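Here is a typical protein record:
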Amino acid sequence: RLALRVGGWRWFRVQGAPVCDAAGRLHHWVGSCTDVEDRHRAAEAQAALTRAADHRVKNSLQLMAALLRLQAGRMAEPAAREALRQAVARVQAVAEAHRALERSRDLRRVPVADLLAELAAGASVLRPGADLRTDAPRDLMLDAERAIPLALMLAELVGAALQRAGTTGPVQLAARAQGGRLEAWVEDDGAELATGMAELVVGSLARQIGAKVALRRLPGGGGQVVVTLPLQLPVAVPEDDPAPASG
């Protein structure tokens, strides 16, 4: 931002490069100063609209989750009540991912620590008294396109861990960067891979974002269900044009 003589400020894109002689001595500089105020304002307006949209989506999903939770409480059949509870958890997970995205700076990347914290808060609402702990570096980021599917996967795994009869200790939800990949895991005393509907949901989402799911046993007992995916989205390489037929 540069101050104007007439008052006020405007955004400029400033570039410069040195010009040196054959001996490497600086001769002069060349540069440009381009007014990008209108472009900057348009970008800010678009970001504001996106944040507002995410806020409304989050609120709508939370309302839907509340209605499903109310309906579940009125169901007499245990199986139907559990199915509705799982539906609530999935809707809530998407809302929590949107809340984490709403808090991000550029709306393109989500701090993984915020995503895990939101998931833990939602799980605590659904299962009061649950001992769910989160751990992730503050600088670990994931693109918004894959953050919501990952949130759904982790919500399924957390729900299974909290429901598992053999779980006696706390459940940990954690993530880290490892060799250019993101590792996120759910750890508990009786860790097992997802089964039933949860297995279908987790498997489908894993294929969607190019993730792998594996069970890692720990030396001291218990285990981790680990979701691994590349930190960066793969760059699409355009296919070469077909070679012309020889005459």
